[in-house]
Structure formats: structure tokens, C-alpha cells
Write a structure and sequence with these properties.
The protein is about 30% helix and about 25% strand. The chain is α/β, with parallel strands linked by helices. The chain has three domains: about 170 residues, Glycogen Phosphorylase B (Rossmann fold), CATH 3.40.50; about 120 residues, Outer Surface Protein A, domain 3, CATH 3.90.930; about 180 residues, 3-Layer(aba) Sandwich (Rossmann fold). The chain has a ten-stranded antiparallel β-sheet with strand order 4-5-6-7-8-9-10-11-12-13. Strands 3-2-1-14-15-16-17 form a seven-stranded parallel β-sheet, sandwiched between helices. A six-stranded parallel β-sheet has the order 20-19-18-21-22-23, sandwiched between helices. β2, α2 and β3 form a beta-alpha-beta unit. The longest helix is centred in the C-terminal third of the chain and has 21 residues. The chain is globular. The two termini are about 15 Å apart. About 40% of the residues are buried.
Length: about 525
């Protein structure tokens, strides 16, 4: 079985999560067992699967594994089901705090319990317990499926010092203990797995605990186990230090160097530094493009194979859909699909739109993606400031994150990408597959492979937003050229058909079966 390891499967997904979803669909179509494994605790994981095509069989949360809660039927648990001390029951005042989504319970004018519910429901999310001095001493967190999944215990000075993760029957599965340094920063001092197959286990870090979980999956797997590190900063140590026989794959979702355009000399991307400095602990490397594979081979000279497997897959349904001509799309519509963060340089794209608007009055830009909160939302603030400085408030719109981009792609004419550093960029491929023309900076490794200059768009020198603006003008003033490149976009997407991508995975699987079976 193949296991794709990540931190979580959140509602607001990055390109890595979207790549995993496409990959699982591909493997299911070919009836090859595969599963996403997540490291972090998330009481809403299974509920949030409704925003994907995943089922409980397709994903395994590490804590679910030890909690024996991978497949639990959802039941309703409302505030009325939460027990109140018997000697309080006749003298309790209950208040609903609407803006906080919880009920407060008072006895003799002193709060003793708070019951939070999930938004827009009466399903219990957490119960906070207070002592006679009204100090918080415990919080019970509920899995969205309707059982207490975590107990959190507080010290008298209101600091969490221990957590217990529970099985659906209420027994303890995992304990997590904390310590505080001199600056009172909390760190984990120990994890304890309780009564797992009749034994207890202790681990110092979450990476050790994840390693143990992965080893258990491999030990019980009747097939060759293939573990793919999809989120290296989260899982590389755990996979590298596995003790059970398995095939370990380092997946480079982004540039391996800080400067993607100086792959031979630039410092290493911290996400991949540990993995790349310990290539003897891996069985294979995956890159999304041949160019990246060549660069990795030239610099690191690995003694393991490098497989070029694009993370993007264009479904056959998309490849065969009716093509939408440019005349039926919103004239002058440019889109970007990216989180608003520093490396995306979206202020460059805004400036390009501002310059192009001097010649194309109806040009507009819609930016789809969540806002990076780093440094108090510094980058979103910067983008808004540039929009205001250029007087583009009615031209450039920040649309936020959306799960459904199909209608966006069907109405857009051009996709703009101004990143200084990129992974494969699934959104660009999706746009191309729907006939949207690509305009991108010359950035390794995905954009300058997906966009083929003069065929489905244009590649612009890194940082040259003036040239990108000129390209916008040229496209929107020349409908025939715009349509020609759109036709090229539709055709170029065939390179990423399910059959073509599956063939690349088969090569890796065959290598794993041969090498691991022979050992």
C-alpha cells in the first residue's frame, strides 16, 4: 500500500493537499490501495471530508489510529446531554453567548461549566469545567462524530500541563505531558501510548510517535509499504527513522533551494534540508518536472532513482469537455489563484494590471486564495496598499479562498503568476486545462514547464511586471492571438492526462516491489 503523509487535511487546502486528493482519486480508479496519513489531532477531520471526495477508508489520522476511531458512526450530542452535578441541578442558570457559540452554566452566581457548540449547530464541541474559585481546570473536546476525544487539564495558574486522547469507549489511548521553560513557553515533555495491543509505549517527541505509527502500518501491511513524504517538515524525520521494512520516498513539492533559479549554489530550502542531507535514508525522490530532477541529480548526485511525477492530473472529463471560446468569456478578465504571501509577489501582478489598464480600460483582476497571517497579515496589507495607491479598488478584487474554481476558470481569459518561488502550481495547470492563457514569470519549477512560451501563454523574465503588462495589452488587443493561445492551452493539458500520470507512478511502484521484495 502507498501512504501519503501530511500534517492534516484542512478545509483551506494548499497545493499539497489538492495534489493528494487528485492522487487518491487516481489510485482508486486503478484499484491500487493508497491512503493519506495525517500527523496532527483534528476533531473535525472526518466531518470535513464532505468537502472532498475522500471517505474514512482513504485517510488515517495518527491519533485516530491509537484511539481506535478510524471508523465511528456519527451521533448527536447536544448541551442537554452534558451532565450537570446532581446537587446543582435545581439551581442552575444557563446563558447563551451567541457571539462565542457557547452556553455558560452558573450555580449560586458562579460559573461552573461552559458548553461550546460547533457553528450553526447544537452539536457539542467542547465542555469547560471551572472549580469553586472559577478557575478553569479541565476542557473536554468532542470529536465532531459525537464523543469526547480529548481531555485537557490545567494548572492553578491556567496553563495546560497534560492532555489525554480517548477512545470512543472513554478509555485513555494517548497522554501528552508538557513542561515550561524559563520564558514560560510550553513544550511537550512526553507522549505516552496507553494499552496499545496490551502494552504501553513512551516517546519524547511527536516525530517519534508518528514514526511508531508508520512502523505499525508497515508491520501490518501484507504488501510492500511505500511511504511518501508530502510535508517534509512534518514527516521526514519519522519516515527516515522507520524500523520496519518499507520504501521511503522524498517528494519535493517545491524548489529544493532558497533561490529556485540558482539550484547549484543557493542555500537549501529548510523544508527539504534534512531529507536532502540524508539521502542514504531514502529509496527514491519524486520531482514534478524533469528540470528539477536534472538539477537535483547534478547537485546531490543521489544513489537512488529520481522519478518525475507531475503532481497535477487533468481528469478525462475535463480533457473532453466542450471548449469555451474567448468570445464567450468575460472580456479582459485576469485571475490569480494563490495564497496572499510574500513569495507570490501579487503586488507585481497588481502593478501589471495597473499599467495595462492605461490601454485596456476593461481589464480586471480577481485574486482567489487565503491571506497569509504572517507578521500580522503584512503581505495582504501590502497588496491592498498597492491597489489603493494605483486607484484599482474597482478593478482588482481579493476573493478569498473558494472550493469551487470551475466557474472562475470558465469565465477567465488569462491566468497571471508573479511568484519568485513556486512548486508545480496546480492552479495554473487547472486554468490551462480549461483554456485559460498563462502569463507567468520564468520561475522554477512548475510554471515554466506548464506554460509553453508562444503556445499556451508567455514566460516573462523574473520580476519584469512591465513586460507582463505589455503581454496583457497585446493579448486583449488581438483576439485572434488570445484564441490561438487558448486553443494551445487546451491541447497542452493532454500531457497531464490520468493515463500519462499513472504510467509514471507505475515505474515507482515497480521499483519498490522489486527492491523491497528482494530484501
Amino acid at each position: 500500500m502507498l501512504y501519503f503523509v501530511n500534517f492534516n487535511m484542512p478545509v483551506n487546502k494548499s497545493g499539497i493537499e489538492h495534489a493528494q486528493l487528485k492522487r487518491i482519486a487516481l489510485f482508486k480508479a486503478h484499484k491500487v490501495p493508497a491512503k493519506i496519513v495525517t500527523r496532527d489531532y483534528d476533531p473535525q477531520l472526518h466531518y470535513n471530508l464532505k468537502y472532498t471526495d475522500l471517505t474514512d477508508d482513504d485517510i488515517l489520522m495518527k491519533f485516530d489510529y491509537f484511539q481506535e476511531a478510524t471508523h465511528v458512526k456519527t451521533k448527536e450530542v447536544t448541551p442537554a446531554d452534558v451532565k450537570i452535578p446532581a446537587n446543582f441541578s435545581d439551581h442552575v442558570v444557563k446563558n447563551w453567548v451567541a457571539d462565542q457559540n457557547y452556553y455558560e452554566y452558573y450555580h449560586n452566581q458562579a460559573i461552573f461549566m461552559r458548553v461550546a457548540v460547533f457553528p450553526n449547530t447544537q452539536q457539542v464541541a467542547a465542555v469547560h469545567y471551572f472549580d469553586t474559585l472559577q478557575n478553569l481546570y479541565r476542557v473536554d473536546y468532542y470529536d465532531r462524530r459525537g464523543f469526547v476525544s480529548k481531555e485537557q487539564y490545567y494548572t492553578p495558574d491556567n496553563k495546560v500541563n497534560m492532555e489525554q486522547l480517548l477512545r470512543p469507549d472513554g478509555s485513555v489511548a494517548v497522554q501528552q505531558f508538557y513542561r515550561f521553560d524559563r520564558s514560560m513557553k510550553r513544550t511537550t515533555s512526553q507522549f505516552r501510548v496507553v494499552n496499545y495491543q496490551g502494552k504501553d509505549y513512551e516517546f519524547n517527541t511527536i516525530s517519534e510517535l508518528l514514526r511508531f505509527c508508520l512502523d505499525e502500518l508497515a508491520r501490518k501491511d501484507p504488501q510492500v509499504s511505500i511511504f511518501v513524504s508530502d510535508r517534509s517538515l512534518v514527516d521526514d524525520w519519522s519516515i527516515m527513522h522507520m524500523q520496519e521494512k518499507s520504501y521511503k520516498v522524498l517528494h519535493l513539492h517545491n524548489s529544493q533551494t532558497n533561490d529556485a533559479n540558482d539550484p547549484m549554489h543557493s542555500g537549501l530550502n529548510y523544508n527539504y534540508e534534512l531529507g536532502l542531507n540524508n539521502l542514504d535514508k531514502w529509496n527514491a525522490i519524486i520531482t514534478a518536472t524533469k528540470k528539477q530532477a536534472d538539477n537535483v541529480a547534478a547537485r546531490f548526485k543521489p544513489q537512488i532513482p529520481i522519478f518525475v511525477i507531475p503532481v497535477g492530473i487533468v481528469p478525462n472529463l475535463v480533457l473532453t469537455e466542450n471548449r469555451i471560446p474567448m468570445t464567450q468569456r468575460t472580456a479582459g478578465k485576469v485571475i490569480a489563484v494563490a495564497r496572499i504571501s510574500n513569495e507570490k509577489r501579487l503586488d507585481d501582478l497588481v502593478r501589471a494590471i495597473g499599467q495595462a489598464r492605461e490601454s485596456i480600460p476593461n481589464i480586471t483582476l480577481d485574486i482567489y486564495g487565503y491571506e497569509n497571517s504572517e507578521n500580522d497579515y503584512a503581505e495582504p496589507k501590502k497588496v491592498r496598499r498597492v491597489i489603493k495607491e494605483l486607484g484599482l479598488e474597482d478593478v482588482v478584487k481579493l476573493k478569498g479562498y473558494t472550493n469551487n474554481l470551475l466557474p472562475v476558470y470558465q469565465q477567465a481569459q488569462v491566468f497571471g503568476l508573479t511568484s519568485r518561488m513556486e512548486g508545480f502550481n496546480l492552479s495554473l495547470l487547472e486554468a490551462i486545462s480549461h483554456g485559460v492563457v498563462g502569463e507567468t514569470y520564468d520561475v522554477n519549477y512548475g510554471p515554466n514547464s506548464i506554460v509553453k512560451d508562444g503556445i499556451n501563454g508567455h514566460i516573462v523574465a523574473l520580476g519584469n511586471w512591465h513586460q507582463m503588462a505589455n503581454n496583457f495589452v497585446k493579448l486583449f488587443k488581438n483576439p485572434a492571438l488570445l484564441q490561438k493561445l487558448s486553443d494551445g492551452a487546451y491541447r497542452s493539458a493532454e500531457e497531464y492526462s490520468p493515463d500519462n500520470i499513472w504510467a509514471t507512478w507505475i515505474n515507482l511502484i515497480q521499483d519498490a516491489n522489486q527492491k523491497i521484495s528482494d530484501n
